[in-house]
Recover the amino acids of this structure.
């Protein structure tokens, strides 16, 4: 089993309450008669030890399951919107372009946009009928 530092730190965090709490209760029981009575006579030691172990076991391993932070469809749609924005951006205009050339290029772009609008209007009218 190949463990790295993150795995070791996660295991230590997970088992620290049980690894510290159970020996601490045992030491407390050897130190005082009253503590021994409450811990062992009233079964508090076993209850607390079982709770500590159950809590440690109930925590999921660090890499086993990960919660999603939202639906994947929104991530996918966000990526598609970004890709569409990148495609929709016009190409940068060369700085040395003459005004007449620029006017001709803009007229061509306008004609292309007008054709797309006409096609969309025609398609929309066909759907309505």
């Amino acid at each position: 089993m190949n463990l790295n530092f993150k795995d070791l730190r996660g295991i230590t965090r997970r088992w620290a309450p049980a690894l510290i709490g159970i020996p601490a209760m045992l030491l407390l029981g050897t130190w005082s008669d009253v503590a021994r009575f409450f811990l062992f006579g009233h079964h508090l030691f076993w209850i607390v030890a079982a709770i500590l172990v159950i809590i440690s076991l109930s925590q999921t391993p660090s890499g086993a399951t990960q919660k999603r932070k939202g639906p994947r469809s929104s991530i996918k749609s966000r990526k598609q919107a970004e890709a569409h924005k990148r495609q929709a951006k016009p190409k940068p205009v060369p700085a040395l372009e003459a005004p007449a050339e620029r006017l001709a290029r803009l007229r061509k772009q306008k004609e292309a946009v007008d054709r797309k609008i006409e096609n969309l209007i025609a398609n929309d009218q066909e759907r309505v009928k």
Observations:
- The radius of gyration is 35 Å.
- Residues 81 and 128 are 28 Å apart (CA to CA).
- The first helix runs from residue 5 to 31.
- The helical segments are 5-31, 33-41, 44-58, 72-88, 99-128.
